[in-house]
Design brief:
This protein is an all-alpha fold. 76% of the residues lie in helices and 0% in strands. Helix 7 packs across helix 16 (337-358) and helix 11 runs parallel beside helix 17. The chain starts with 19 loop residues before the first helix and ends in a 5-residue tail after the last helix.
């Protein structure tokens, strides 16, 4: 699928929400932010939940695994659904339905009920695939890497913000309104669920599937493949070994981020003896790097692509993963807070740049099955989180678990060299990249000419008045 009229610039049009591409960009990252916030909203409150429901360390481990396991299947399905009904409807339904378990977790009364809702909440993690899909169909090759990376990075930011906002919201209910702690954490999740529901409704009315309209209209105009071809393209994408290499690679970066979001607050509370709020703030520093780190990964991915083509994007991905693994090994050895915090931040930087670098490659694997590729690779992130979660299920010391993960990530970085492209595709993408850059320059020239013409017209308008006043027109 190759849609027309994609935006060739992001930052120069950043506030022009009249453009459907820019309006969609802002809605996608904000919707993903809210989903990520809700997905991990319970994580910084786990010390309170643990005491009330009397959860063991083993049960907490199962909750961590459960929260990311169902997302594997949800992401595989949502990619196919995007190709079929469009990202606008897919996102709306996901947000509306996903809000129910977010609010429903407040009804938990024991480990089994808590685990059930924790697993169901994981379904909203599929929002990532829609976010990447929607920005990919809206932006041209010269900026698609940074558009994907920024929308996903700012969305992932919700995983950091929730680490300190949820304890504060919990404190408002407990200290401000006088509710018990058992009621406070439940009400906090209800508030988040209501917000998710409202954003889902807004997404339907404020976005469209593609630059030129919605998928239903484009199919009626024969400008898109028919729905019946979606499944065939999906199966063809699954046969591409590069998709599965990226599946593993994304598990080595995003899977690690999911794991850290789940365990960071508890890790710093137990290993560094911090309070609930303090541990939340420290853990938040990991997620807050998404404000710019993932964008950097996408920007450099586009730049490497401009210099060395598609193979340049793959090489940048290797660099990010290798340094992520090294940084994680270093973090695992830190035993005092003033060393652990900066090493956590450096580790976070390379983790999120690797995620951005991954999705600067994804749009070029198979354009006829974009949803399939985005879904499978996205599912790899959660598969990695599930496997990593077993290390934190009372198997070994958590610092040792981080060290093992660092070694695995460093080894996985070399898989990036297996993401290769044919000479024909390299040439086609170089041509498309050049065309997009030319279009960007043309539009900038048009704006400059319009500004110059406006200035000349203003000068001409001043001449009669200047002559009447006996002064020269400037």
């Amino acid at each position: 699928m190759e849609l027309e009229n994609k935006a060739t610039a992001l930052w120069s049009n950043f506030l022009n929400v009249k453009m459907p591409q820019i309006r969609t960009f802002h809605m996608t990252w904000f919707a993903f932010f809210s989903c990520f916030f809700a997905w991990f909203g319970i994580a910084p409150l786990m010390s309170v939940v643990r005491d009330e429901l009397m959860l063991t360390k083993d049960q907490i481990g199962w909750a961590i695994i459960g929260s990311v396991s169902i997302t594997i299947f949800a992401r595989l399905f949502i990619g196919w659904l995007c190709d079929r009904i469009g990202p606008r409807k897919a996102y709306t339904w996901l947000l509306v339905i996903g809000s129910l378990p977010v609010m429903g977790i407040g009804l938990s009364w024991n480990f089994e009920s808590f685990l059930l809702f924790r697993v169901l909440i994981g379904g909203i993690g599929a929002s990532f695939v829609i976010t990447q899909y929607h920005t990919t169909v809206m932006f041209a090759p010269n900026v698609v890497g940074q558009a994907n990376a920024t929308s996903a990075g700012w969305g992932n930011l919700g995983g950091g913000v929730t680490q300190f906002v949820m304890p504060l919201l919990f404190s408002v209910f407990v200290v401000g309104f006088g509710f018990s702690e058992a009621v406070g954490w439940r009400l906090s999740m209800v508030v988040v669920g209501v917000i998710i529901l409202l954003i889902g409704i807004a997404y339907f009315f404020l976005t469209q599937d593609a630059p030129d309209g919605n998928f239903d209209d484009l199919r009626a105009q024969n400008r898109m493949p028919e729905k019946k071809k979606v499944t065939g393209n999906y199966m063809n994408a699954l046969k591409d070994p590069r998709v599965w290499v990226l599946f593993v690679i994304y598990g080595s970066c995003f899977g690690i981020e999911l794991t850290v979001n789940n365990v960071a607050a508890l890790y710093f509370a137990d290993y560094f003896d911090l309070s609930l709020v303090a541990a939340g703030f420290v853990a938040a520093s990991f997620g807050l790097m998404n404000l710019f780190a993932r964008t950097l990964g996408g920007v450099f991915g586009d730049n490497f692509g401009a210099l060395w083509g598609l193979k340049g994007r793959s090489f940048w991905l290797f660099i990010c993963l290798l340094f992520e693994g090294i940084a994680l090994i270093i973090f695992s050895q830190m035993q005092v807070l003033f060393l652990a915090l900066p090493s956590l931040i450096v580790f976070s930087l390379f983790t999120q740049m690797a995620e951005g670098a991954t999705y600067s490659v994804v749009p070029f694997i198979n354009k006829k099955a974009l949803g399939a590729v985005a879904g499978v690779v996205g599912a790899g992130g959660n598969a990695g989180a599930v496997l990593a979660g077993f290390l934190f299920k009372n198997m070994i010391d958590w610092s040792e678990a981080f060290q093992v993960l660092g070694i695995v990530v460093a080894c996985a970085s070399f898989l990036a060299f297996f993401v290769r492209f044919s000479t024909r595709q390299e040439d086609e993408e170089r041509a498309a990249f050049a065309i997009a850059n030319i279009e960007t320059l043309r539009r900038r020239a048009e704006k400059a000419n319009a500004a110059l013409e406006h200035g000349l017209n203003a000068l001409e308008a001043r001449r009669p008045q200047a002559a009447q006043d006996g002064q020269p027109a400037e």
